[in-house]
Predict the 3D structure of the following.
Amino acid sequence: MLLGGIEAGGTKMVLAIGDENGNIFEKATIPTDTPDVSVPKMIEFFQGKGIEALGIGCFGPVDLHKDSPTYGYITTTPKPGWSFYDFAGAFRKALNVPVGFDLDVNAAVLGEVTWGAAKDCGVAIYITIGTGVGVGVSVDGKLLHGLIHPEAGHVILTRHPEDTYKGHCPFHGNCLEGMAAGPAVEERWGKKGVELQDNPKVWEIESYYIAQAITNYILCYSPEKVILWGGVMHQEQMFPLIRKQVQEMLAGYLNSPMITEHIDDYIVAPGLGDEPGIKGALRLAYQELL
Amino acid sequence: MLLGGIEAGGTKMVLAIGDENGNIFEKATIPTDTPDVSVPKMIEFFQGKGIEALGIGCFGPVDLHKDSPTYGYITTTPKPGWSFYDFAGAFRKALNVPVGFDLDVNAAVLGEVTWGAAKDCGVAIYITIGTGVGVGVSVDGKLLHGLIHPEAGHVILTRHPEDTYKGHCPFHGNCLEGMAAGPAVEERWGKKGVELQDNPKVWEIESYYIAQAITNYILCYSPEKVILWGGVMHQEQMFPLIRKQVQEMLAGYLNSPMITEHIDDYIVAPGLGDEPGIKGALRLAYQELL
């Protein structure tokens, strides 16, 4: 069975032809321009390839309510041309196949639950920390939507005692995205993260915010696996700092060996490398067919 | 069909005989003593009444993993006699009926989703703020468990700028339970909440913490309904303060009319009055029969 997948991001679109087992046979990446530039190129990639369904993991906010007139749309994004754009519809019309549609981080957690580090987990979360922060949540193999969809990257945090930075989020200031996403690191220190690798204070403060958010996610979701990735987490020296601070912040309150003894196997990088999103999109395609 | 229900709390046990439609025919309340005092009295209440199943909504922490050797036990409670007590097993043996078992707040959200304010909601949360803080979560009619079960009453909060109180939680200090549960109010102000009704600063600070936690819950769970109750919330003057602050803290980021326009119908008291927990226990009994 041939399936198509799209990982639609703010800066690039990853496209793939694969199958229901998560194998990828062909892959392409194009920069994200306005829809009238990007979408025809994306359609061209899939045309004539014989895919039976397409799955899209898309940057948000998106409308995931199947009974809504704007289901499958990107909604209130500031990104030029994409606000209230019928993303799923454009591909459904052009390719004439069923289209599965969900948030990018939801596709990523679905990929990880199906084939990756969270395989067989009842509750799993996928956190991506890059230019923004997103959290995807899977409960018994279903993706959490609810009223809109989780926006847990914007949880309000308490400040690090030595941090006077006002925060980068125009809505909340001291939310996780505002304090810890790539643009916040760059604005706080006046340099990009990759240029700050040798300054331990940078990563102490950064991991403090990430650990605090993960502590609250563990308390809220009770996940069996916490998957953590995104551009900022390529600074992998933060993983041990984050794990240690999560244990300190929980302070022994949650009495599970996964947290108290096996935290190295509890808060982890993706099992699918850089492909949880695109593989999750293939899974969305497969689920839409069923 | 006759069903039994138990709402097992730290200070009292509510017992009921009812049916699969949430009707209650007989109800009793006994104080919570040690198991060897309380449990025989509870068994006596149900004996000879012809119930086909029993449901228990129990104070935590509890073991909800059906494949665990301590499934149905209360686990690490400081309450004398109840630590690692086989609560579900005691009633299964004595009454010889199927026993459904879950956390007290999970029973409450189940009651509300089945018959109350969250009827037909895909994602709903029930927050109780009393001597402790608990949060029950229902996703598509199933209760969220995961690794242990949510303990979202312990989420870490940022302090109110005028509040110097250290916090009552021995684990976390400035978590929701530590800053806003009944014992925290009493320790901060030197009086019980009921005696502080005329001091607006008390309820401004109290509602600040509750609103901050609810803001984070909304971002994490994307609930379609937020049900808020417990002894502290009998100070109903806090509902409008909390709703207003949640809107201010979200700052228009979540663009849903439920939040921006209809918040009076979004953050609400239970639809089942003081009975969501005991009615939810009847539902647990029914689900265990199926």
